[in-house]
Amino acid sequence: MSDVYMSGKFVGTVEDGESFAGFLREERRRGSLSENANVFYDAATNEVHVEAAKGRLRRPLIVVRDGSPLLTSEHVEKLARNELKWSDLVKQGIIEYVDAAEEENVLVAFFEDELTSEHTHLELTPLAMFGVVTGLVPYANFNSAQKVNTGSKNQKQALGFYASNYMIRMDMDVNLLHEPQNPVVRSVLHDISDYEKHPSGQNLVVAVMSYKGYNMEDAIIINKGSIDRGMGRGSYYRPMISEELRYSGGLVDEICIPSKDVKGYKSEKDYRFLEEDGIIYPEAPIKEGDVVIGKTSPPRFLSSMEQYSLSAETRRESSVAMKHGEEGVVDFVLITESSEGNKLVQVKIRDQRIPEVGDKFSSRHGQKGVIGIIVPEADMPFTASGITPDIIFSPHSIPTRMTLAHLIELIAGKTGALAGRYVDGTVFASEPEEKIRKELLSLGFRNNGLETFYNGETGEQFEVSIFVGDMYYLRLKHMVANKIHSRARGPIQLLTRQPTEGRAKEGGLRLGEMEKDTFVAHGAAMLLKERFDSDRTIVPVCESCGMVAIYDEFKRRSYCQVCGESAISFIEISYAFKLILDEFKSLVLYPQLKLKTKY
């Protein structure tokens, strides 16, 4: 006897669980049972599980009977003529959706010629096991699974052409590639997803070789001539928003050029780009500190008397200005109303981004790396036919990653570029490598992708041949200009007296125990004296009771609140430590400092 469970609840028993599961499946294909239900027979526990709940991942498969699929060429022709729909195939039981549990009971064939009498289902296409973005990776079946996944993630981070109305959109943190191209090596999904309408990469000449060690650790070397001709150039857009808020008591913000008697007035230089209405004009070149939208607000705190004598002097400055390390050009100014009916001003800032050392690039195979050096075109190695590569890629990035498709794409891209055609690199259904190699040979190049290279600085021929080809490369959104951050002195937090946090707030770089260990390992332990005193403070401590005492600045005298006049010593501690002592006191704990002499 087999137990039967419906969505995890016991509903009864049957004599033969396996045949009962088979019967339910046949009923589902006939249409007498919902096509949403899935049946799983667990031979180990002799249980039948019927699932029809929400939230399951299901995928379509072609039903196979006696070694032949139920989907025939007639069905395919009718689909092409729109005489038949996908839903009709599902209703007729030709295609069924299988969930993760039922998949344990089926044997799925990849291709029709692999079918045997034991097979129960056939894949619609092996491509269906991948998502939309992963399906764009060409020759993905030649890569290790992990790198196919990484390649998919990298494509999502690539700069591209995200929307045709980008000029009038106000999106946060937008990157745009100036001259995106269609890939030469493409898959079926490029056509299905209309990829040519939103491309996000460029076809570049890539040579696989080392060059003076500047492409160690996955770094890449870029030809300066390529950057000058527009390779990888993009724009970065960011909006700055301000709203005229209304407060209780009829007080309102005002977007205007703040007058000099406003509390917190910056300087005339900071407001120089504002027009009469207090808003900046388009195409103004701005740098950090420049005010984009001028605004004044009522004071934060109003006492009972001040409410009746509000004057201009009591207003405070609350303009929107460029943050630390930012610069750009005003691209677009929008004046509108918010949902509450308040005046809303949005200003879009544009900044041109030219590739620089440290910017991140990647192929579609998860071979990501940053620019190690930008070499003048005259110093770049070149081929016998005079081709200078755009990128020099490190050969050490291949063996451990097992991204064979990266190398195949180089040869396929080279063939496609020379023959003036697109190469089909669809997963499991791509153009065979042998065919591409033969075509490359017929085009007058070596079929293994190798070419003779010459040293760009000396003109000498390299003793080895270099693997070179064409490839679709992506520029990723991780750029040095958005991340570069350093600080000597600057603003501190009020509570702990430690440096503020974050790049925009001119924050410090936190050094923890592990970072400390690296300094010690480098033999730079004395540097820690300077690193660890960002909140150094000197406090008076009572020698008898061990509590933090008081130092009166005006009378120039120290005394203890507990002991009165007693011996006071000034000691150097971290302000955060002094703060925790105060917090202990608030918990009615007595933190006693026992002082010893250093000497």
Describe the structure.
The protein is an alpha+beta fold and 599 residues long. The chain has four domains: 2-129, no CATH class; 136-233 and 361-475, Dna-directed Rna Polymerase Ii 140kd Polypeptide, Chain: B, Domain 6 (Beta Barrel); 236-353, OB fold (Dihydrolipoamide Acetyltransferase, E2P) (Beta Barrel); 536-586, RNA polymerase alpha subunit dimerisation domain (DCoH-like, Alpha-Beta Complex). It has twelve helices and 33 strands. The strands form nine sheets. It has a six-stranded mixed β-barrel. Helix 7 packs across helix 8. The mean pLDDT is 92.
Uncertain residue segments: none
CATH topology of the largest domain: Dna-directed Rna Polymerase Ii 140kd Polypeptide, Chain: B, Domain 6
Report the biggest beta sheet as strand number plus sense, adding barrel if it closes.
6 strands, mixed, barrel
Number of structurally distinct domains: 4
CATH superfamily caption of the largest domain: DNA-directed RNA polymerase, subunit 2, domain 6
Distance between the termini: 86 Å
Average pLDDT works out at: 92
The SS-based structural class is alpha+beta
Q: Sum up the overall morphology in one term.
A: extended
> Strand arrangement, largest sheet?
12-26-13-24-23-29
